[in-house]
Amino acid sequence: MLAANCDNIQQGHAPVAVLFSGGLDSMILAALLDNCLDPKFHCGMFLARVEFAGKLMTPLKLVITDEIDLLNVSFDKELAPDRISSRGGLKELQRFSPLRRWKLVEIDADLSNLTLETRHVMSLLNPARTYMDLNIGLALWLASSGSGWVYEESIGNVNSNYDSENCQSIKYKSEARILLVGSGADEQCAGYGRHRTKYRNGSWIGLHEEMKLDMQRIWKRNLGRDDRCIADNGKEARFPFLDEDVIRTLLGFPLWEIADLDQPSGKGDKKILRAVAQLLGLHEAAVLPKRAIQFGSRIARESNRKNFGSNRAANLASAGSAEISRP
């Protein structure tokens, strides 16, 4: 009966995508999402419906969602750190779940050609108005558009081998309406460099106070900005690390189980999430250092050159916190 009805099982678009850098947080989200979107579950439901009928009937068409879109934005094409790590992350996910059709959607941008888009994103940022907000907002806005390129071999294996002569790029737009974002992981698991500074200067108490402040202001500094930039593309942002049960669970651990900031970057920061990645079998992702989207995508570098002349001049002007002058 399954063979007879194969033609009625249609391939569907992924309902959920992941904002993907190939880093620790996005790799964990992708792996957990894979466990939630199991195509075998849908096949089982289809067979149960047919068997329950007890007689031959016009088969229902079923959409099987066996693909997951991984959205990656770069302002330096294949040279951006996030583009490099996203391709490495894709290979690890393919080993993690070989039956899943992982689609790495590579979204390339040139800041010098985004004048109108920049003005539009600035209207979404309100009341935020720093260059850092603009860099993050523009990167999120472009990524959540889902419009980029995927690489496919002639045999139809998506993203399988970038070095293959048979590999071709195909224009692609993600139809996912929900985008998973890793916000909250750094704030709760001591992922920022300033967390290490607070720990060194104020021990565990100083670190606790800084992380508490981060969570108290995340809605104002991050979530409103990020949600508006993503929603503008018709997608709903979801923040799994900010789920109430996740927050409650993390608060139940002592800080020294969350992070060990005496250890180097890539090992002691976000220690608890690195343990999760190891348990999932994501051994390469488990040791990757933290990299913010504005630096990993290299939009910060391009913005510094455009607005300040150079990275050095931008650093002298504290470009990250500098406010954008508006007419």
Tags for this model:
single chain, 327 residues, alpha/beta, five-stranded parallel sheet, disordered N terminus
Folded structure, characterized:
The chain is of the alpha/beta class and 327 residues long. The chain is built from 13 helices and 9 strands. The chain has helices spanning 24-36, 39-53, 81-96, 115-125, 131-145, 185-189, 193-231, 244-251, 255-258, 271-280, 293-296, 299-308, 311-316; strands spanning 9-11, 16-19, 62-64, 67-74, 101-108, 147-152, 168-173, 178-180, 236-238. The strands form 3 sheets. Strands 5-4-2-8-9 form a 5-stranded parallel beta sheet. Strands 1-3 form a two-stranded parallel sheet. The chain has a two-stranded antiparallel sheet with strand order 6-7. Helix 3 links the parallel strand 4 (67-74) and strand 5. Helix 1 packs across helix 10 and helix 4 (115-125) packs across helix 5. The radius of gyration is 22 Å and the shape is globular.
